[in-house]
Amino acid sequence: MTIPIPHCPSRFLLGDAAALITLDAFIDIQCPHSRTTWPTLLAVSEHYKDKPVSLRVHLITLSNHRQAWDMSLGLFALAQDVASKLMI
């Protein structure tokens, strides 16, 4: 399965964009290892929320998780819809 390269970065940022330290995590929505790691990433982000640390999450698609690409697109559409309703 060929996966297209996105035209814009596929990422979400938790924390300050100008933080001195940025943790980058690459997550596949269908990957069980990503699912296991996610609570730890959120806990680290919460622990350092008052420090100059941010968490940047990149959505990736592994070729053996065939529906992850469609799920990622749906997640971005949902995020844009929510952001527009909240005027973010």
Written account of the structure:
- The chain is α+β, with helices and mostly antiparallel strands and 88 residues long.
- It has a single domain, classed as Glutaredoxin.
- It has helices at 32-47, 68-86, and strands at residues 11-14, 21-27, 53-59.
- A 3-stranded mixed beta sheet has the order 1-3-2, covered by helices on one side.
- The longest helix has 19 residues, at 68-86.
- The radius of gyration is 14 Å and the shape is globular.
- The model has no long low-confidence stretch (mean pLDDT 77).
Main features:
single chain; 88 residues; three-stranded mixed sheet; 2 helices; globular
Summarize the structure.
By secondary structure, the chain is α+β, with helices and mostly antiparallel strands.
Structural class: alpha+beta
Give me the strand/helix succession.
EEHEH
- Whole-number radius of gyration? 14 Å
What do we call the CATH topology?
Glutaredoxin
Q: How many helices?
A: 2
Contiguous runs where pLDDT drops below 50 for at least 5 residues: none
